[in-house]
């Protein structure tokens, strides 16, 4: 995983770079330049992973909108890679990216900042729907079913939350 951005002042610059790279990938994908699309989508994922970060202070010191943009970048990057692999008839790789998107957002539910947790809840719905649509289209696997099931159990009203 990419290193977290330690300076939150760098976040707008990295987000701008991510937008440029993801658009480049989308243009390549639309033009059927699959090699260039893959390179761009992988670069976008690296940037998005750096924006979200893995240290516990991530999300503090940035606005809710910036946190939302970073989470969106991560989800879009993973989902674009999933679309790339579906198009390449590599559904297992696509499933892995969809699962990783869902799991990354799910992991933010335990974040100490309530705003980040709320954003995660909103995005978890999106990643879950994408994963369910994939399962409906291609069938489930142990990996996809476990990913969905663990998040559903955790979001159940019967689940015990530790804060």
Would you summarize the structure shown here?
This protein is mainly α and 163 residues long. Helix content is 73%, strand content 0%.
Characterize the structure shown:
This protein has 163 residues and is mostly helical. It has helices at residues 11-30, 34-52, 64-87, 91-107, 114-138, 142-155.
Helix share, percent: over 70%
What percentage of the residues does DSSP assign to strands (E)? under 5%
User: Structural class, judged by helices and strands?
Assistant: mainly alpha
Low-confidence stretches: 1-6, 156-163
Number of discrete helical segments = 6
Give Rg in angstroms: 16 Å
How is the biggest beta sheet arranged?
none
Shape category: flat
Record the SSE blueprint.
Elements: H1 11-30, H2 34-52, H3 64-87, H4 91-107, H5 114-138, H6 142-155
Helix pairs in contact: 1-2, 1-3, 2-3, 3-4, 3-5, 4-5, 4-6
């Amino acid at each position: 995983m990419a290193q977290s951005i330690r300076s939150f002042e760098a976040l707008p610059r990295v987000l701008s770079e991510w937008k440029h790279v993801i658009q480049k990938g989308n243009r390549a994908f639309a033009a059927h330049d699959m090699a260039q699309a893959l390179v761009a989508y992988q670069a976008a994922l690296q940037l998005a992973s750096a924006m979200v970060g893995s240290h516990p202070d991530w999300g503090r010191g940035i606005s809710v909108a910036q946190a939302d943009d970073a989470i969106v970048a991560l989800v879009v990057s993973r989902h674009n890679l999933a679309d790339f692999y579906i198009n390449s008839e590599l559904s297992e790789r696509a499933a892995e990216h969809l699962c990783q998107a869902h799991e990354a957002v799910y992991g933010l539910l335990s974040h100490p900042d309530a705003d980040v947790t709320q954003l995660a809840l909103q995005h978890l719905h999106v990643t879950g729907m994408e994963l369910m649509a994939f399962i409906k289209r291609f069938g489930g696997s142990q990996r996809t079913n476990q990913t969905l099931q663990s998040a559903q159990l955790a979001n159940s009203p019967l689940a015990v939350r530790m804060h």
